[in-house]
């Protein structure tokens, strides 16, 4: 199938400007990597969510990823690793160890998000990769939720790519982020892609389920699209069957909600100010709103998770979930997205007519 060329595909050497989001969910290491390996094989690029990784789980990951991409020689491993800033901040030594293992394994890119001191970790990656035996300096991707953050990332930190995450997105994100369409438009206006000063490629993230939506962001000027939730509806996903079934059943504007309720239910505290998360709107949210005490909610959530009762489980999901109708292998999701993207771009081209 036809390749789609953008500044992102040139940067990464890929054929399809579709990126699997870094999604930390504390899953078994190799389950977490299966999705990313298949996204890369499908022509896109996969970021493994390493927010809760340990040195041991990283080593297991790399054994698996290396065996998935044999004979790379000195070329970087065609996957990225995503870290969460505030979790790195908790313990400097262990953070550096995790980043260094990732760098030594010659990954193509590192993604950073959700921290008040992201620059510190960018500097560490740059210094450490200059000293390491790695043959390649990982590209730096930073996820932002406002135009101000994008300007700092581009102009001060000189990152290689910016992920513009809008309010529709699943999982954690900016509590006051605008829609993805508005955010990407604002960032493109502030960082013109064809201006005199070189600007990093801008990737749109949040709420996408189809290749046609990806095409819309490319037409707007984005260099690529990041999808997270879509890859949770796959057999490779670490989500439990009950969570996947809940994603399939989710419909309508109220199906998901941005809230801190889901973090409260899993006692996950420490997120930076103004970050909350989007997930399926369920009985957890009702109980928080009704003022049920947090210990009770946490106990109910734990019991429901063990029992596979999705009505009281944390199920992160973006607003695009309403358009997701099928659980199928990542490979097939990539074929569908790629085909739909190419078809939509061809259709858009037909909108142009020569003046007669
Ligand atoms: C289960 C889940 C876990 C996520 N974990 C992370 C993470 O570890 N780091 C991060 O930067 N973003 C994380 N995100 C947000 C994604 O990077 C991305 O912005 C989002 O998935 C895009 O929206 P979509 O899910 O609607 O496609 C997560 C999203 C989900 C759904």
Automatic annotation (TrEMBL):
SUPFAM superfamilies: Inosine monophosphate dehydrogenase (IMPDH). One of its GO terms (molecular function) is nitronate monooxygenase activity. CDD domains: NPD_like. Keywords: Flavoprotein, FMN, Oxidoreductase, Signal. InterPro entries: Aldolase_TIM (IPR013785), NMO (IPR004136). The keyword Signal applies. Residues 1-29 form the signal peptide. It comes from the Eukaryota. Pfam families: NMO (PF03060). Gene3D superfamilies: Aldolase class I (3.20.20.70). The keyword Oxidoreductase applies. This is Uncharacterized protein. It comes from Ganoderma sinense ZZ0214-1.
